[in-house]
Amino acid sequence: RSEIRRIQQETGVTTIFVTHDQEEAMSITDEIVLMKKGVIQQQSSPQQMYINPENEFVAFFLGSPSITFFVKDVKDGAIELAPGYRVKTNAGNGPVSVGIRPEAWGLGQGVEVKVEAVELRGKDLIVSFNLGDVKTCAILGANEQVSKGDIISLCLKHSYVYLFDRDTGVRLPAEVQL
């Protein structure tokens, strides 16, 4: 990857590189054109595409571990992600798909979950848990003392929380207030 990137930058030649490997696409390119069944879903820099996905497909395609989606209803300016754990939003009432990237979670006052699995990935821990009936995960620092079977409290700490139209999958302009 680094060699392909180096040659591309040194020669200044426009290169079209076709891949299904999202890590490869994000690491060697200045711009990604992400397609689904021959239709462009989003065209932007890798960083912009990851931070600001235009639809559920884009959000799901980029990221490892992948984003988790929750089918929820907005009621009175809030979404209940789990019993007793609500987040505020400026979205209108109605059905939405809530996408939460693993790095959005952090240890802190929030929702209590039982740790189902822990995977060490160098500087990160991938902590798997169920939130309601949805399997999800959080990326925590490797220095956190978390083990399988522990009950931990997690809260949303980062802006990697997105709302999508439940029918079309298009990202809504609404935000979740953490």
Distance between the termini: 37 Å
What is the count of DSSP helices, taking H or I runs of 4+ residues?
A: 4
Our Rg estimate from Cα atoms comes to 18 Å
Number of strands: 12
Please write the string of helix (H) and strand (E) elements: HHEEHHEEEEEEEEEE
What is the topology, as strand order, of the major beta sheet?
11-6-3-4-5-12
Strand content: over 45%
Which tags fit this structure?
alpha+beta; 178 residues; 12 strands; single chain; globular
Summarize the structure.
This protein is α+β, with helices and mostly antiparallel strands. Helices cover 16% and strands 46% of the residues.
Structure characterization notes:
By secondary structure, the protein is an alpha+beta fold. It is built from four helices and twelve strands. It has helices spanning 2-11, 22-28, 46-51, 56-61; strands at residues 32-36, 39-44, 68-75, 78-82, 85-89, 94-100, 105-121, 124-131, 134-141, 151-156, 161-165, 176-177. The strands form three sheets. The chain has a six-stranded antiparallel β-sheet. The longest helix is centred in the first third of the chain and has 10 residues, at 2-11. 25% of the residues are buried. The model has no long low-confidence stretch (mean pLDDT 93).
